[in-house]
Amino acid sequence: MDLDVEKIQIQNHQQTAQKLLELSPTLKQIFQDQWFYVWSLTPDNLFVVHEEQQKITIADGLVQVNIAEENPHLIEFSTPHPNISVQKIADFVFNDIHFFLNSSNTVDALFLQSKVQIFRQIIVESVFEWVDGENRVEQYLYNLTEQEAECIDQLMIEAGYYNVSYLKNYAGLGQAIPLHVEVNIKHLCLINSIIGESFLAIQKVIPAYEHFCLSAQAFIPAYIYRIMQITMPERYCLADLLQHQQDYDLLRHHAQENPHLLGFARRIKRGYWQYQDIFSKDIFLEPDHEYWDDQFGLNNSHEKSERTLNYPICYLKRTVNWLFRQDQIVNDWISQHIDDANVRMTMIALSFLHTTPYPPHVILATLKYFKSSSARLFVQECAKFALRNDWIKHTHVKTHDPFISNQSKAVSDDQHGCQDIPANVLYVEEWLQIFHKQVALDPKIAKQVFKHINRVIQAFIQYLNDIVQNIPADLIQFIEPETQQSPFFFHSLKKHQLEVQDFRSLFKHQHRYLNQNMGIFESYVADYLIDLFQRQPNIAKNVTWTGLYQKAIKWHEQVYLEDTLNQLRRRVNVDEWPSVTHQKPIQYDAWIFSELNSLKQIINESLVYKHCLALSYTELIVDGGYAAFHMASLDDEHLHLTLGCYLKNKQLHFDQLRFANNEKASEEIEEIAQKFIQSLNQSLNA
Fold first, then answer.
1. CB–CB of 302/293 below 8 Å?
2. Do 329 and 448 fall into the same domain?
């Protein structure tokens, strides 16, 4: 109701403004003078980026913004109209329009709406100033004839703006015009009061504004934008550019020569940024190089905790070589997550693979996928290799772990044999030391230790790459779910006439059970790999991700079965119980009904069809108060349901009938189940 009232008030305000112009040629001229500046404005030309000239035009050219490549310290605002001041618009563009470094960002809708409303109001007020609207309205009011004053008073009183003939009293009696009367009439002369909501309609401007906020890369010089990606927060305004002038000077050479490595500048002390060799390969192999920032986990020498160990970004030269060949989107992410041992392990594995044919976003997605598992796989493989190759007697490592120190007093200081290091991911840094020392003695060891890890990573990256071969190139950047809220994502889908769900379904494993599709970026297979590496000494060279997924299904089923079985055995003391029907599967009409009368049957039913039968109804079934059946169609092999019935006085009473995922059955199928129960009850009475 409130929204309707507000809409009516806006319409009445617009109608009053238009009638006011009909009464006064002077006020109509003020409107026409304003219209001269804004008649051509549309959402599409409010914010225009000219990529080749690296400039922006605001409000169809009313304001132009230039950022000189050779002088990024200067942001120039200009207007083709020499007699007007665009300061308010320029201030808003300079200080209040927030740009985003990542085009896959989503922008809060209320934030956008608020900014668009402010910008629209600034244009309205600026245009009124340009035509000297305030003074001209005041001069008009103070020179009204009694007849003009009477007409305007009548209009304003009827519209509810005031209830006294203030203008007539001034024109006839010389009484002062109240301030609120002047303000109301001035407001009615504003361009948005006369044109109404259709003037730069907020909801139509919002998409253009959002697109502009995500388009800074198109008008900021490339090397400056690259430095901004490293030194500035995710959200910034043009004013922030001026606060980073020294960064541009220090990093300009690196941004132009090695833009793909610039992300690692975050990890280097700012005082060394001007050095020419900060991105030399040798530095990436040195854990204690003076260039690395003290806050960097790799070289935190000031406040090193007892468990902190120094380690290089790359352990192998081949890994450095691989890193230097990667796109900036890959290296930027690595530079932010290099403290994570999983990332360093995945880098080593990928360096043994030929990744050049793969798009950067596929490589990045692979790094992210194994971010929670690579270190575990490495520790398992390294511990096995150490045991098989008798590293135990010959390799000592540094550790600050008090448990290990107490267990190995015979070794001086903090030097301990690798027999003291548990094969646990918590000791991944110690195992990396062992690995590094052994590789120094025999470089071929690295490939052998990573052989099985390489094979599963190769399986994933190849599987993902096969998928992206079939999608447009500009959509590859949106393969990960978290990137699929960007307006650019939906724009690209529309351009290629693709539906959102169709695109997302490309990145789901097709489950063999009904309505079960597992996203390929979920940890479903990765969880299985941890167990696989513990149990299986060898991973086949021709392993495929699809094959691993199928095995993961069985593994997850077995884990669920065992866990649920253990839970239920703590609550009930039988594995099987007599069936209510005392019969094998019963055919009724075109359906087969199979009673579930064992723990394994009930658990399997819950597992396959994703419902709570096992955990919620088992005790009631065992106590004789409930019965459950699997219901399968003879006409359609895809139709499977679970039927639940209460059991009272040896009679079954319908409770529920569900498809997989607790989807309710149709009335037609439910009627068949009801008739089956009636038929079965008759046989139970016999």
1. no
2. yes
